[in-house]
Amino acid sequence: MNAVTPQHQPQSQPSPDRTPATTPTRTTQDAQGAHGTQSAHSTHENPDHEAGYRGPATLEFEGEERVVDVELRGTFQPVDGRYHWYGRVVGAPELVALLGGRRTAALIRTPQGEARGELSDPDPCYRYRVTGTSTPPFRVPGPNDPPPVA
């Protein structure tokens, strides 16, 4: 008698004419498609496909107007059916001094568009967080646009 497998418990062996039932494993090709390219339907699968903007912007808030540099991006969230965009105002200590670190509604204008959003919680490098929902202040490529040039 084998100490590991008692004789009264037969070991299951697949018969030569049929294969054992298993759950199919997902191959890299399955995950990326037939041509080895990732699907662009979800930006969470490949963050390189997030729409975004980096460059100059004008902020309007509390009767003030400031020209700043921003880094923005966004994604469509199927849970609520809305487009969420977010980013940072790049190194703007004058905003921290002016706003004192508090949240402020703002109009963000770029050469590609404008949108209402919120400035909130500056980080130690004086970069204010910018958030918004719905139409962003930058162009979002559509499904019929050519792919970005790498």
List its salient traits.
single chain; 150 residues; mainly beta; six-stranded antiparallel β-barrel; 2 helices
How many DSSP E strands? 6
Helix count, per DSSP? Answer: 2
Residue stretches low in confidence (pLDDT < 50, at least 5 long) are 18-48
Could you estimate the helical fraction of the residues in percent?
under 10%
The general outline is globular
**How much strand content do the residues show?**
35-45%
Cα-atom radius of gyration? 26 Å
Structural class: mainly beta
Walk across the major sheet and give the strand order: 1-2-3-6-5-4
Task: Write down the overall mean pLDDT.
Answer: 76
Distance between the termini: 65 Å
Strand/helix succession? HEEEHEEE
Give the oligomer, counting copies of the same chain as homo and different chains as hetero.
single chain
Q: What can be said about the biggest beta sheet?
A: 6 strands, antiparallel, barrel
